[in-house]
Structures are given as C-alpha cells and as structure tokens.
Amino acid sequence: MKWQTESELRELLTALMQYESISGTTGEVALAEYLYYLLRGGPYFEQNPHHLALHPMKDGRYYLTALVKRSTLRRTVLLLSHFDVVDTEDYGEFQNMACKPEELMASFFFKKGASSKEGKRGPCFRRLAVWKRGHGYESRSHRAAFYAGKGDDRNI
After folding, report:
1. Per-residue model confidence (pLDDT) at position 125
2. Taxonomically, which superkingdom (predicted)?
C-alpha cells in the first residue's frame, strides 16, 4: 500500500505542493490530472477504473471523483475537498519558493520560543553591542527594539 509511512506521506505532500495550482490557472488543471494519475495507479482503481473520473468543466478546469465501495459496509463516507490555492504574492521575496516546501523551510530558523521572548533577545543583544561600540541608533524602529535609557527599561 502507498502512503503508509511518514516518509511516504511527506514525499506525497511535497509532490502535491510542487504544483502551482492557483485558482483558474493551468497549474490547477495539472494538479487535477496528477491526482487522477496517482489514484489510477493504486490496486483498487486498477480493478475498478469506472469508480475514478476526471470531469471537465466549462471553464477548462476539472473536478475529480473517486468512489471506493466495500460490500461489507452499509454506511457511506463522503470526502469533499478543493485543490486550488490563492496566488502567492503575499510570500514577498519568498514567492519563488511558495510551492517548494523544502527550499522554503531551509530559509527559516525554527525553534520553540523563536517568535516569543527568546527570538527577540538576539536582535537586542546585537543592538546592545552596537550601542556599546558607540554607534548609537539611526531610526526609531531600532530604538523600539532596544532602549538603554537611565533607569527605564521599557520599549518605546
């Protein structure tokens, strides 16, 4: 069986994320075709190809249906999803990596506490070193991160 181990699931997710399936683009169509291809290769759909179909829509996109029937079960489970995504403009300078999870993750430093107080100490220590060397601060944003006033340790 496919996709049973953590590494197989990670590989699948990475492969799916490679598709720039932005709503209304050729990437969305390509992902529908890829999902069909992936499912078609499994033993159930090889034996029951009529239970798997790509359906064209008027706008050139597709929707995918897959039915898995078990003769011993009386209940039906319906899974419904979409696979298009919004554009990636909000990724800014990382937009070229929006669909490349391994590259994107390599650009960041993850650790518990990195976004709370621990993560703020590094820039503060750097600014303290700059302050001690006598370079001072040139912008209000720097003073907001670290303030070394007499008897006052509040951020301003």
Report:
1. 60
2. Bacteria
